[in-house]
Amino acid sequence: MGLLIRGGEIVTAESRSRGDIFIEDETVSRIGLDLDVPAGTDVINATGKLIFPGFIDPHVHIHLPFMATFAKDTHATASKAGLIGGTTTFIEMVCPSRNEDALDGYKAWKQKAEGNSACDYAFHMAVTRYDDKTEAQLREIVADGTASFKIFLSYKNFFGVTDEEMFNTLTLAARLGVITTAHCENAELVGQLQSLLLAAGKIGPEWHEPSRPEAVEAEGTSRFATFLEQTGATGYVVHLSCAPALRAAVEAKLRGVKLYVESVLPHFLLDKTYAERKGVEGMKHVMSPPLRDKRNLPILWSALQAGLIDTVGTDHCPFDTEQKLLGTAAFTQIPNGIPGIEDRVNLMYTYGVKRGGLDLHRFVDALSTRAAKLFGLFPRKGTIAVGSDADLVIYDTKYRGTISAATQHTNNDYNGFEGFAIEGRPSVVTVRGKVQVRDGEFVGEPGRGKMIRRKPHHGADVAEQQAVSHAS
Ligand code: URP
Ligand code: ZN
Ligand code: ZN
Fold it and tell me: What is the tens place of the pLDDT at every residue in 335-384?
C-alpha cells in the first residue's frame, strides 16, 4: 500500500513548490498537484507545512572509546534522537585507536549498528595508523561500501597520524577516488601548550581553548590542504571553528585544491564563554576544536550563506556529567564532545533561516544535499525526486519550544543548548516511506535503518575505480 503526503510546500536545495508526494516501495514514485492515488492509500495532510528531504548528519560519534571512557549513546538512542530532530541518515566515524587493527575495528562498528538503528547510516573509516596491512584493509573496506576516510591530525598517539601516514592515506585515497575527512589541529603544538598550561597550575576547562588556539587549527587546515594539493586527493575539513582556519581553507579552494568544509552546530551558536563557566558547567562545553571567541560566529554564518562552508554537521559526541568530571584535576582529561544530533535541524532553522536570514535552500543544501553529493549518497538521499528514497521531513514552522535535557531523547544528562528557543520542528519524519516520528515522538520500527553502501566518485584512476566497483 502506498503513502500520499498531500498539499505540502516541497523545498529542496534548488526549488520550492506546492504539491503531493506519492510513495511506493520505499521510494518517491510521483510528485505533482492533486495526484490521483489508489484506494486504500494512507494519506498525511501536509497543508501549511514545509517538506524537506531527510536531513543528513555527516559527522557523528556513537560507539566511541575515547579519553578513558565511551560516548554514551547507542545506535538505538542516537538514531531515534536524530530522527525526532529530522535527521534520517547519519555518517558515523569508525575510530579504532592506533593500537587496534583497522579491519577488526570496522567490523566491530558495523556490528554495533546493524539491526539497531532506526534511521539509515553510513561510515567514514578512520585511518589511525598506516602500516603494511593498511592498503589491503582499506581496499576491502571501500569495496564493502565505505567510500570515505577520516584522519586526525590531533590526538597524538591515539587517533592521530603522522605527516607520513597522512601522505600515504591521501595517496591511496586519490588512487581509489575516496574523499578523506580530517580533524585539523597541530598535535605537537596542542601537546606542548597543554603541558605549559598545566605546569602553570591552569587546570580548569577555561584553559582548553588557550591550549588549542585558532592558529593551531589554521596550521592543521593549511597543512592538510597542502598535502591534498601534492597528492591530488579530495579532502573535507571537519568541524572548522574559526576565521583563521576558514581563511586557510578558502585560500586552498581558490588555488584549486579539492577541499570542502564542514562546520558543526556548537560553533555556530556557542562561544568560549560557555567553556569558561566554573566546574562541570564549563566541562560540558569542552570539545575540539574548542568553542571560540564570539567574533568568529558571524563569520561562520556568512561563510555558510556564501557556500564557503559546505555542510553543517554536529560532531555529536555525548559524555555525561560524571564522565566530564574525569577532567576535574586537569582539563586535558575532560572527555571532548558536545551532543547535537537531535537539535541540529531545529536550531539551524531557528537561528539561521528564521532569525539570521540564512537562505532556505542553502539550509537544505548544507544540512542534507551537499553531504549526500560529497559522500556518494545522492540522488538516493539529499533530495525529493522521483526514484529517491522516501526520507521526508514534514516540518511545522509554527511550533514553538525550548531545548532541554529534561525532554531530550539523546542518552545524556545535560544538553549543551539548554534553554535555547526553537521556532519549528518536524511533525512527521519518514524513513524509506515508513513514518518513524510524529510530533516529537518516535512511533516507528526501531531497527529499520540500513547501512547505505557507497561507491568512490572523487576522480579516481578509472581502472582503480572499476576494480573497487567490481569487488563490491
Ligand atoms: O570534541 C570532539 N570533537 N569530540 C569528538 C572527537 C572528534 O574530535 O571529533
Ligand atoms: Zn574531531
Ligand atoms: Zn568528531
Answer: 999 999 999 999 999 999 999 999 999 999 999 999 999 999 999 999 99
Supply the DSSP symbol for 316.
Answer: B
Q: Are 183 and 151 in contact (CB under 8 A)?
A: yes
Q: How do 69-70 and 50-53 pair as beta strands?
A: unpaired
φ/ψ bin of 448: left (φ > 0), alpha (ψ from -120 to 50), beta (otherwise): alpha
Q: Given phi > 0 = left and psi -120 to 50 = alpha, else beta, which region is 324?
A: alpha
Query: Nearest C-alpha to atom 3 of ligand 1 is from which residue?
Result: 288
CA dist., res. 55 & res. 277, Å (int) = 32
Distance 317 CA to ligand 2 centre (A): 10
Which residue of 57, 59, 61 sits with most ligand 1 atoms within 8 Å of its CB, as the best mutation to test the pocket?
A: 61
Taking only the tens place, the pLDDT of each residue in 159-170 is 999 999 999 999
Whole-structure pTM value? 0.97
DSSP reduced 3-state for 332 = helix
Ligand 1: which of 60, 181, 186, 239 to mutate, most ligand atoms within 8 Å of CB?
A: 239
**Cα(374) to centroid of ligand 3, in Å?**
17
Is the CB of residue 457 less than 8 Å from the CB of residue 376?
yes
Nearest to 9 by CA among 50, 58, 62: 50
CB of residue 289 inside a 6 A radius of ligand 1: no
State if residue 288 touches ligand 1 by the CB under 6 angstroms criterion: yes
> How many Å apart are CA 468 and CA 135, to the nearest integer?
13
Closest CA to 150 of 230, 110, 92: 92
